[in-house]
Input
Amino acid sequence: MSVLSEKLQNYLHEIGLYERAAALMYWDLATQTPDKGVGPMQEALSYFSTKAFSMWTAPEYEQMLRTLQKPEEFEKLSPALKLTVKRYLEDYERNKNIPQDFYTAFVTESAKSEKAWEEAKRADDFSVFAPHLEKMIAMTKEKLSYTHPGKDPYDVLLDQFETGMSTAAVDRLFAELKEGLIPLMKRIAAAPQPDVSMAYGHFDIDRQKRVQELLLKYIGFDFEAGATGESEHPFTTDLSMRDSRVTNHFNEKECVNAFFSAIHEGGHAIFGQNIGEEYEDTCVSVVNMMGLHESQSRFFENILGRNINFWVPVYDEICKLLPAFKQISMEDLNRIMNNVHPSLIRTEADEVSYCLHIILRYEVEQAIFRDNVPVCELPALWNDKMEELFGIRPDTDAAGILQDMHWSDGSFGYFPSYLLGSIYDGMYLQAVKRDLGDVDELLRSGRIREITDWLITNIHHNGSMYTAPEIMKRLGLGELSAKPLLDYFNEKYAKIYNL
Amino acid sequence: MSVLSEKLQNYLHEIGLYERAAALMYWDLATQTPDKGVGPMQEALSYFSTKAFSMWTAPEYEQMLRTLQKPEEFEKLSPALKLTVKRYLEDYERNKNIPQDFYTAFVTESAKSEKAWEEAKRADDFSVFAPHLEKMIAMTKEKLSYTHPGKDPYDVLLDQFETGMSTAAVDRLFAELKEGLIPLMKRIAAAPQPDVSMAYGHFDIDRQKRVQELLLKYIGFDFEAGATGESEHPFTTDLSMRDSRVTNHFNEKECVNAFFSAIHEGGHAIFGQNIGEEYEDTCVSVVNMMGLHESQSRFFENILGRNINFWVPVYDEICKLLPAFKQISMEDLNRIMNNVHPSLIRTEADEVSYCLHIILRYEVEQAIFRDNVPVCELPALWNDKMEELFGIRPDTDAAGILQDMHWSDGSFGYFPSYLLGSIYDGMYLQAVKRDLGDVDELLRSGRIREITDWLITNIHHNGSMYTAPEIMKRLGLGELSAKPLLDYFNEKYAKIYNL
Output
């Protein structure tokens, strides 16, 4: 290793310390900071984030990257460091063009906009949020004019959350999916619907937590390299390479949702816990490709968790830990967790209609950034698309365009990642079957860890070394396609709904 | 406020941010960092502690203090800032004389010594710890030769944990106490001993936690300004002026100990939660006087908590939250929590014999620093003193000199703070009775908050503005004396043991 590359890694390591402080404060704020301690904790979080940002934009740092970029230095670098110099120089180039004043204004406006969104949602009043949404759209466009002058804004937004993904690629995949999903949804709607009332009752929260622990261990979450907490919305955060934490939100009246949140966040965390240690202090250990990350949480949640065989080895143990769970038989559970039906709220949707929720958002984002549809027309556009895709229309904006927080802080282009994750999962599933055999049988016989190990070896270990299309190639799966996901849905739900 | 004093406060505020990061990491390490995340978290803690230390020792900081010390600037300052300039300049003067190399060596040796102590205790082998203890003693003496050249080392050590306390003062108080306690212990030992077997059973830990919450609320812990966690040893830490956190350690077989730990740590936290906000970014908001701090935790734990009337308003509620607690009647509880008897382990001792445990340590520390007794002779000295004070002799060093960790990291002079706290409590109790009336009656009738409010007004609000002797004067209680504590013990235990 050259002296200079060591210097770069030490520098990245130091940024990591500031980011660890900020991440720990974020975790603490979400899970345990008491009300009156929130202000001081937020102040400290913001202080250390700013310190990290100033290190990311320091001229001294640029100098290191530029020197390492020179051919005679570059050729001596490891593949991970080559990628690091390349990616971080691109990031640096973009960020340095953002005027400091604009950056500060953007951060301030985001915070205001988030608060306005909360209020608007609570009051079910879009007009409270509209001026802020307008501003976030305008500022996002302005930001992109600095970082990516002359490029299509929405292409850039997609690429930002999923490296290498363009509107053309996403258009093709989503169109393929939409075409297959709408008829499937209709056939399911025409079939007899299950009784799922046994999902509701009284489920002791302390005991739900013990089930969560069981489920996390079962899927391969390493409690020596992770921890759990409680927060308003479930999330995962990595505090270091072997410290991935998940949160959950529990409800005394219903427990199945929390179990799936645990499996979902557990999937994110297992990814974080298994990135190769040799990638520490390189860009490879940081996975900002959200489609790739979601593909892992959703593989555990949907492909494995919503397969009834997943529950065979643990059902009795769960009933022991949470006696109230006995009211839900295995057959009931299969219907509850695979209860496909049109619904208004994305986060409560089944795995099939979930895809349509994302496609709706993708189309509205295009309307915003491509067609410049005015903000005041967006609620009606949303509702029209709900009718088109689901055949239902929200009564309120709170259950319509105001339901998600993503746009309030400017995270345009994030939604598609969720669905890209599922599309990747359809493809991974093919490879898992090819390499390990029948998944139902693996799950039923308690061999889920073989699947986890496959994911670790083929995906997690490599961190962000490869983009999703590269991973598919390495796995011999060819071009990205939504067909495997559609095939999986069609086969699975034909059985469940006797189609 | 002058521009310069504002600059000083901003500087102290920034140090506070680094210390907040370090404190949060400490809290996290103790309560939830997973094993494999410990290394990175410790590294970050050490990084931010060092940043804070370098700000405490920066020439720029000294310059600010020196300028503010000049009469024309000093007279413009608030009392809290006057104290801040005075105290912090003294600290600065001392710390600047410690050679950087020595400081680093001391920190490194402490860490090694702590580990060696753990191993020695586990293996019950003093010889593993002896060379490290020798080194910690020598290094402590060396450190004091830099910070306080020419002064008596043990005097300095005492003063370090309890500002204004000298060996002469402590000698007088402890002698007074020892003289009264030994006969009391003998009289109690001669009385019939209670059956306390009902203290053991099966007590669900999740339910013990609910009782903890009840007890903390009951004594006045503000959950909007604090949080709870679990750790190997209970402790309290303040993350900001309105964010005081307590931990506890639960045992399924016995719950009374954990309840008293909760009340004890709750007392520390209530102090932190109620320091006047106007003292932010001054030395007054930082309470390093450990005797003063212990006086608050011990007032709640012993003076209030070990009074059976404390439990009258909450007993039924506790039995509802923790049904297993019903096996302990109020009369049983009174005997369990006031079961005075000679014992080997300080942390498990009753409030009377606890005092003798501290006096023993105080005498051994004097043997070390005054009489230069060689380390190899200390285990026997410890055991001899156990026989003298308690009439029992430990079979092992693990239950003797190796039981406490304090000396392993060089915290010589800390032990006396615990007992000073109790001595202060005896005096506060007089003032509480004078100002609020009969304490038994206040507790029995559920008016404990009036006592908490008295403590807040007379002690907590002022932070470290006043030393313990100054507080006593302000309360009209005269010179420090152990007599009130002795009177309290004599009266209380005469009743309980029918002496």
Notes: The longest strand of chain B covers residues 243-248. The mean pLDDT of chain B is 95. The two ends of chain B are 61 Å apart (CA to CA). The CA atoms of residues 431 and 476 of chain B lie 8 Å apart.
